[in-house]
Amino acid sequence: MVDIDGQVIELSKKYFPEISKAILEKDPKLTVKVGDGIAFMREAENYYDVIIVDCSDPVGPGEGLFSYDFYKDTFKALKEDGLFVQQTESPFMHRKLVKDIFDCVSDIFPITRLYTAFIPLYPSGMHCFTMGSKKYDPLAWEPNRKRTFPTKYYNEGIQKSAFVLPNFVKDLLYGEKER
């Protein structure tokens, strides 16, 4: 995990211990770095299985996390079957940005999908996430093993339904040809 602000990590451990469990328990699968995520991705190559980018809005210092070069760097940083996902704003409020990001990622990754989630605390409630994959298509996904841990929200139906897009989002990404 890379965050540009070490205080965010410390406050997360203090106020959100349940979701900071891997940091608090020093999980060996997690390495925490304080620094610039853009520079970090620029240096990485063929190393990660998954890259999840949860960043601020695409203004100021966060703007580079929404750039073509950053997406190329994430592709390079992933192993041959790796995948990348990034929160990519509201399709109601940021139509052009959602489309531009989807097109950038589509230009770089062989498989690109957009999924949605409803987050009541965010403006408009509906939020997009763009996924680029080198090998695996979530639309072709079938569970091949039993889940070995409990989840509060997630289940196989949620997995599949997240990728079912409303018509206005399909039109935004693909035009009417996909309807």
TrEMBL record:
The keyword Transferase applies. One of its GO terms (molecular function) is spermidine synthase activity. SUPFAM superfamilies: S-adenosyl-L-methionine-dependent methyltransferases (SSF53335). Residues 1-134 form the PABS domain. The active site is at D54. Keywords: Polyamine biosynthesis, Transferase. It holds the Pfam family Spermine_synth. PROSITE patterns: PABS_2. Belongs to the spermidine/spermine synthase family. This is Spermidine synthase. It comes from Megasphaera elsdenii CAG:570.
